[in-house]
Amino acid sequence: MRKTSTSRAKGKKNRPKIKLGIPDLEHSKVAVLRSLCSPDSRRGYQHAIDEFVAWYCSEPRLAFNKTVVLRYRFSLEERGLAPGTINVRMAAERRLAYEAADSGLLSPELAAGIHRVKRVRKLGSRLGNWLTAGEASALWQVPPMPKLLQESVTEPFWRSCSAVGSVVANSRN
User: Fold this and answer.
1) Is residue 104 left, alpha or beta, with left meaning phi > 0 and alpha meaning psi from -120 to 50?
2) According to the model, what pLDDT value does residue 86 have?
3) Dihedral sign (CA 72, 15, 26, 34)
């Protein structure tokens, strides 16, 4: 049996896009930002998504897929951004892809491919004396210092700071 033109048009209409335009990205961005509770998270994700959209639109018309997101990650690495910063921005792009897939703008397979883009490894180790869980718990159990005692402990410190500051200021003149 032959398909009619209306059934072909209907099948084509439901197919998700490969290349997303600015209105599609803006729609997905709004959905991502509405799903976040924290104002700080909203601000960080908005900055990351806006930067990605600017990069995405500056390149020749690209399809929104894993390869493009990898290219974006490489461009962030070339700029010398810290691994933590890159990972936060990539989390925003993953969320953008899922929202686009949920709204039917992007196929779920493409969104899953974007989600599989690996994070940047954080190399090195933390420096300093870090508290153990027991030490941190004990620190929280200590009652606060009385105001008078706080002033008596910090006053000599501030006096020495002002004395050093005046010596440095006098030596510059």
Assistant:
1) left
2) 94
3) negative
What was the pLDDT predicted at 48?
93
Question: Residues 104, 105, 111, 113: is their CA dihedral positive or negative?
Answer: positive
Query: What is the pLDDT, as a whole number, of residue 142?
Result: 75
Find where tokens 């004395």 sit: 163
10 Å Cβ neighbour count for 150? Answer: 11
d(CA 13, CA 169): 73
pLDDT at 8: 46
State pTM to two decimals: 0.60
Query: 106: exposed, middle or buried (C-beta count within 10 Å: 0-12, 13-18, 19+)?
Result: buried
What are the residue ranges spanned by the domains of the chain? 14-115, 136-172
Query: Among residues 139, 52, 133, which one has the least CA distance to residue 92?
Result: 52
Averaged over successive runs of 10 residues, the pLDDT of the chain (173 residues) comes to 48 59 82 90 92 86 84 93 92 92 88 90 75 83 69 70 61 59
Residue with token string 């709204």: 103
What is the DSSP code (8-state) at residue 79? T
Architecture of domain 14-115: Orthogonal Bundle (1.10)
Residue 43 CA: distances (Å) to CA of 39, 40, 80, 87, 142: 6, 5, 22, 16, 36
